[in-house]
Design goal:
The structure holds 2 protein chains of 2 kinds. By secondary structure, chain A is mainly alpha-helical. Chain A is 77% helix and 0% strand. Chain B has 2 domains: 162 residues, 3-Layer(aba) Sandwich (Peroxisomal Thiolase, Chain A, domain 1); 153 residues, Peroxisomal Thiolase, Chain A, domain 1, CATH 3.40.47.40. Chain B is globular. The chains are: A mainly alpha, B alpha/beta.
């Protein structure tokens, strides 16, 4: 909570919040990190294996193999979301299954499934990017800023 | 009759002549499965949306409660119901099906006892002979509205709770056999400035404590008067806090009689983090488990304190804190 908001609290509220905080079971941060490392690592290893597969058997180069690799991981993730498995993996793995491309696919697929009951246009179409939208907005925006900085440095003869 | 500052004493002691609890597949694996009248093995209840599934639960609970009371729905004069969905659609749509004159309530998860207290009031003041009080919640429908899509793989913290898929209903009458409503305490809204929707127990605990204290002050009773004092859905975190706060304020409740519906409904191996929550939680545990035990003679006097968090997804996104409320109803076998 911001310090600005804390100021408005009465002494009784402040006292209670400190008390409630002490009663709150702590998030097992270290355990979560280890789990995230393992699951995230496994997902990336699968990605690495897929890339090798595409390069060895399907005439892709190291650069072009990226697209079919990501697509395969997305399909697997969407499939697991549809079967109702991915959320259970997510509860166990935390950031490990949220950060890779599979997590992004899960946000879109889960929103699409959830809002199917409101129809294809307003339900699926309107809500598919509910969770993925912020990632796209701020991903594109930060890429834009970084690109401007890069161009500015180049023009000024920095590189 | 008003007693003290905020309590009602029901002089005619209205009777719960019939009650029913309906649950979903996860509740069927829970600790209180035997106390449900109907258990579904399908989270969709054969419907094509979770919202319709919740409505079906509520309709079934109402129909079963009326049937167990030995009545027809035409005999019921008023229907009081509330739920967690936007504009309480589950209740209103179930009222459309039932065709009973209806008052919609919103007290979030405190709706169960809000409805029961008002049903007691209507019957006690002779403004109705048979009044039906009901409430429902559905895990997936609540997750969809308040949190993330059900299949979204976000990690929940250990303070988070599991919304119960279930509905409970009770028929309150002027005469008959069964547990009787003797008193109710209406709570005030308490907000201690907490704003974490994944820790509702800690937000709601002060409201429960406020209402429990008010009840004993107004009724001039000791906590030992009751065989069980059960809060609605504080979960392990909130229940622990409430116990400590009550001790601090000099209300001594023995740990063996002080419990929480959210801690009772599931088994230990079901991994529901801090416990069960939702309107259905206190409703199914009270209208199923507790009333069954009273009818079997195992319990004589119980106090149910249903707790509710009066927030909306929008108020939370706008960084508002969570105002909470609790209503208590005393039920006795006489």
């Amino acid at each position: 909570m911001s310090s600005k908001k804390k100021k408005k609290l009465t002494p009784a509220q402040k006292e209670y919040q400190t008390f409630a905080k002490s009663k709150e079971p702590k998030r097992p941060v270290f355990k979560n990190c280890v789990k995230a490392f393992i699951v995230g690592g496994i997902i990336c290893t699968i990605g690495q294996f897929l890339q090798w597969l595409y390069m060895t058997y399907f005439n892709f180069t190291e650069v072009t193999a990226g697209s079919p690799t990501a697509a395969t991981l997305i399909i697997i993730s969407v499939f697991l979301t549809g079967l109702g498995v991915y959320d259970h993996i997510g509860q166990w793995a935390g950031a490990g299954s949220a950060v890779p491309v599979t997590g992004f696919a899960n946000t879109m697929a889960s929103s699409a499934i959830e809002h199917r009951s409101e129809g294809f246009v307003l339900g699926v179409g309107g809500n598919m990017f509910k969770l993925a939208g912020p990632v796209i907005v701020y991903g594109v925006f930060s890429a834009f800023i970084v690109a401007i900085i890069k161009i500015a440095i180049e023009r000024l003869g920095g590189m | 009759m008003l007693q003290g500052h905020q309590s009602w004493v029901f002089e005619t002691k209205p009777v719960i002549v019939g009650s029913a609890a309906v649950g979903g597949p996860f509740e069927a694996r829970g600790a209180l499965a035997e106390d449900f009248d109907i258990l579904h093995d399908d989270l969709w209840m054969g419907q094509d949306s979770f919202e319709k599934a919740e409505r079906r639960l509520l309709e079934e609970a109402c129909e079963t409660a009326i049937q167990k009371a030995g009545k027809k729905k035409e005999d019921i004069q008023f229907f009081l119901s509330g739920d967690l969905m936007n504009q309480i659609i589950s209740s209103s749509f179930a009222a459309r099906t039932l065709g009973i004159p209806y008052l919609g309530l919103f007290g979030a998860c405190s709706s169960s006892m809000e409805g029961l207290a008002l049903a007691g009031l209507i019957v006690d003041t002779k403004y109705g002979d048979y009044v039906l009080a009901a409430t429902s919640s559905h895990n997936a429908a609540a997750e969809k509205q308040f949190r993330y899509p059900t299949e979204y793989g976000a990690q929940k913290p250990p303070t988070a709770q599991w919304t119960v898929t279930g509905a409970g209903a009770a028929v309150v009458a002027r005469q008959g056999d069964g547990p009787r409503l003797t008193a109710a305490t209406i709570g005030r809204v308490v907000d201690m400035g907490l704003s974490d929707p994944f820790n509702m127990g800690a937000a709601m605990a002060p409201a429960a404590v406020d209402t429990i204290q008010a009840h004993f002050r107004d009724m001039q009773r000791e906590p030992s008067y009751y065989d069980i004092i059960a809060t609605g859905d504080l979960g392990s975190v909130g229940h622990d806090i409430a116990g400590d706060l009550l001790n601090k304020h000099g209300v001594e409740i023995k740990p063996e009689i002080f419990t929480d519906c959210g801690l009772m409904i599931y088994n230990k191996d079901q991994n529901v983090l801090a416990g069960g929550s939702g309107c259905g939680c206190s409703a199914v545990v009270t209208y199923g488990h507790f009333l069954n035990r009273m009818r079997r003679g195992e319990l004589k006097k119980i106090l149910i304190v249903a707790t509710g968090a009066l927030m909306s997804p929008m108020s939370y996104q706008q960084k508002e804190s969570i105002p909470c409320i609790a209503h208590a109803v005393a039920i006795e076998m006489i």
